[in-house]
Amino acid sequence: MTSEAFKGQDQEHIRQRTYSYAMEEDIDVTSHTEALNGLSYECKPLEEITNGHSNHKPLMNGLIISHNVKDHTNGSAPLRSLPISALKQNGLLQTLAAGGDQPNPTEENMELEKAREEWEALEHVQPALNEDLTPTPLISFNEALQYFQTTDLGDFLKNIQPTIRRTGLAAITHFLFGPPRLHRELLEERDLVFAIAQCPVDNSQTVHMRVLQTIYKRLIGTKLDCPRYGPHWENIGFQGTDPSTDLRGTGFLGLMHTLYFVMDPETLPLARDIFKLSQHVTQNFPFSVMSINMTRIALQVLREEALSKECNRRQQVVGVLNEFYVATYLHLYQLWKTQQKTIADSGFVLKEVELFAKKNPKQMLRRLEVFLKERQAGGIPRGTSPDPQGQQSSPSLGERAARAGAGQGSKGKEMHFTGVCDLPPDMEGEARLI
Fold first, then answer.
1. Is pLDDT at 429 greater than 60 in this prediction?
2. Fewer beta carbons within 10 Å, N or C terminal of the chain?
3. Which of 226, 229, 224 lies closest to 201, judged by CA?
4. Nearest Cα to 106, choosing from 78, 86, 130?
5. Is 421 left (phi over 0), alpha (psi -120 to 50) or beta?
6. CA–CA gap between residue 327 and residue 251 (Å, rounded)
7. Tens digits of per-residue pLDDT, 372-416?
8. Against a cut of 0.70, is the pTM above it?
9. Rounded distance, CA 174 to CA 317, Å?
10. Where are the stretches annotated Disordered (predicted)?
């Protein structure tokens, strides 16, 4: 028998085996010949019907690609175990799809090993923390203020209410017996303050983010930046992971006042003393939220024109308001510390501080001036004694303020802190942390 005859019998035998296999498995097999490296392959996928579901087994160059086969990198079955993503990443999938020449086993092993190393390297990549980067430079109060002075705040200026609207007899009484009006040349500066109090925190503004970072660093005493969101903000007295949610009623001015407090060399020690008290085991309170309340009180006093006389005398609004904010926080700090207040008393204490601030703005500013001078002189300012027996009541503070007032040619009033039980019942609903 000739070689052609043997070859014909072999081909017939292969066709019979293929047909028999297809009949046994109940699979329709379509034979298609691809001329790739001289080999012929079956290109139509095989399907097995199991419980009414179809298992699709794709063929690639005649080989069934299994997704459950373990990875073999010894060159015996590289295309079976390599993920599609790795093939695509290393150019092998494009080569096979384009019908190019198959790489030799050595080239395949090199490509597969390279893909495996790249994939394993991805598992060890860690996102860079902000602390690892160059720290954000601190920002001064004047630099932040200059930013707002050169920014278009027209939309916010439309919604401000710089003074209390009075009508009828109240307007006449205020005109005749109330505080003087603010000088005309200071109106623009006053309106700027109220416009800033309308501004929300903007994550896209570098100045806004620097203000937040500066406040955090100065209070905590770190040089590293912190994430924009996170529980670390609660460590400096915000109520949640996002400081901007606590700025109700004060807008960005609440942060500006805190920035002034921690960046002024004269007031920074006081800010840290108050922050330390806010961390006390029993007398703790949220430092930043309380600071925002001090800003709210200062704004209200300015709106009622109780600071107009001092602003006119010094020919500035921002500086006076900054000092009055610090004086208000000092007043609360001394009251809180000497009378052993706790967070349960916060509502009553805030209302008491607000009433006193509205009635005695000049006295509060003078008290702050004396306090800072005594501190610079190296002594312990009165009203900050850690011993509650040594400073139980506030008349001594009032006497000191009275003496300071006498030096100015005016009669100072004695300070009097009303007790919790002395507050009228109708104040209970208003006295609360904002």
1. no
2. N
3. 229
4. 78
5. alpha
6. 20
7. 999 988 766 655 554 433 333 333 333 444 444 444 433 333 333
8. no
9. 21
10. 377-434
